[in-house]
Amino acid sequence: MDTTTDPTPPTRVFVAFQARDALAEIRFLCDVLGFAQNLVVPGEGDTIAHAQLDWPGGGAVMLGNHRPDAEYQREPGTSGTYLVLDDPDLDALLARAQSEGSGARIVQALRERDHGGRELTLADPEGNLWSIGTYPGEPSAADS
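^ thats the sequence. predicted structure below, dont judge the formating
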């Protein structure tokens, strides 16, 4: 990526996990949480070998179907990730998550945090935990 014309730096950290039904997981992450499909590589049969879903404003996740016999494998439902959103977007995401048939299960209700911001935590249909909030984190030492 040419950062002289695009000030957004490329993603340098990806959350990576596996799903029993990666195609359904991709639909959930895009339709309910708001990720955008960047790349989806089909695997054997109806599986997904690899997918990259981009998060608005920066960041991404990578996932594929769980293959217990593969060299790299993660047990589905063991990921925990924090996503940062602007306040109005958080309310819209909560509404999507609460809609019938979304597949989301609210684990921690929307609340104000002592360290700043509002957040909620939900589980996706595979059991992964997604905390979504307005807390952008503290500046890194590299920003000082």
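The chain has a mean pLDDT of 90.
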